[in-house]
Write a structure and sequence with these properties.
Elements: H1 11-18, H2 23-34, E1 43-46, E2 50-52, E3 58-60, E4 63-69, E5 72-81, H3 88-101, E6 121-126, E7 136-142, E8 149-158, H4 164-169, H5 183-192, H6 197-227, H7 233-251, H8 258-267, H9 272-278
Length: about 280
């Protein structure tokens, strides 16, 4: 019966929280994902995620940020995907266009004025392992009057392709909790295999230990960053809160006490009183 319970994992909420931990951690992420070199005190703003279409329906993007340098603003749009949905490139064009025209003041457009719209820089972060996902998603737009063929390209970022050293070097701390996502697929595979209860119990124990090892390694990464003054205590608390939430939503059906175990592991590193306040 337990194997048939549908898990509800609130990826959207967790990812939104991760990208709202602090401005400097978000800047680190933008630098790593888009190969930029913004200073950590660069002005950054979380923009409205909802955009009205012409038919009055609403398009909701995952994360849209505005970064201001030299009095110029540039927009960065991030989408998160769990499956290899090849039609997402069409949605990315739709989202990009909505974002591009969002701040146009139609009352200021003069007669015969040539209008220029600037699309945001975009990237798709894939959360679940799938070897068929390309490094870039592409789509050709054929324009009838100019005869131009425009190639629309959106790069992808696959979290399972990068080890902890990469995240540490790039200061991608807000991505650390996401390393446990692909362990959930291994647990689902165990549940779906035709095994005796004794065999399943043995394998579940093995993967329980594996999950705890990965979580422990993430917590140690947070500890090292804190010791080097690369993270402040509030950032640590928020990272560990999202790690705890994600672990509970992914694994609580198989490991009933996973939330408490993560909290206990975190307490061994961070002052329990401070951690409790962070939660």
């Amino acid at each position: 019966m337990g194997a048939n319970i549908k898990k509800v994992v609130h990826y959207d909420k967790i990812l939104k929280n991760l990208f709202n931990i602090s401005n400097r951690l978000t800047i680190y992420a933008i630098n790593a994902l888009f190969k930029k070199d913004f200073k950590e005190d660069t002005k950054i703003e979380q923009l409205n995620r909802e955009y009205k279409r012409i038919d009055d329906t609403t398009a909701i993007v995952d994360t849209i940020l505005s970064i201001e340098t030299n009095q110029q603003k540039t927009k960065y749009h991030i989408e998160f995907q769990t499956i290899n949905d090849r039609t997402i490139i069409i949605r990315m064009i739709d989202y990009g266009f909505r974002i591009a025209i969002d701040e146009i003041d139609y009352n200021d457009i003069e007669t015969d004025q040539e209008i220029t719209v600037e699309f945001p820089s975009q990237i798709i972060i894939f959360l679940k392992k799938n070897q068929t996902i390309p490094d870039e998603l592409k789509l050709i737009i054929k324009l009838p009057y100019t005869g131009q063929n425009i190639k629309y390209i959106v790069p992808t970022f696959k979290i399972w392709e990068h080890d902890p050293d990469y995240y540490k070097k790039q200061k991608l701390y807000i991505m650390l909790p996401l390393q446990i996502i692909n362990l959930s697929q291994e647990l689902e595979n165990i549940q779906n295999r035709k095994l005796s209860q004794a065999e399943k119990t043995k394998l579940l124990k093995k993967y329980r230990n594996k999950i705890k090892q990965v979580i422990d390694s993430i917590i140690k990464e947070v500890k090292e960053a804190y010791a080097k003054d690369e993270l402040i205590i509030e950032e640590c608390n928020k990272l560990l809160l999202e790690l705890t939430t994600l672990a509970e939503e992914l694994f609580s059906h198989e490991i009933k006490e996973i939330k408490q175990e993560v909290i206990e592991m975190a307490k061994m590193i961070i002052d329990p009183a401070v951690y409790e306040r962070g939660l």
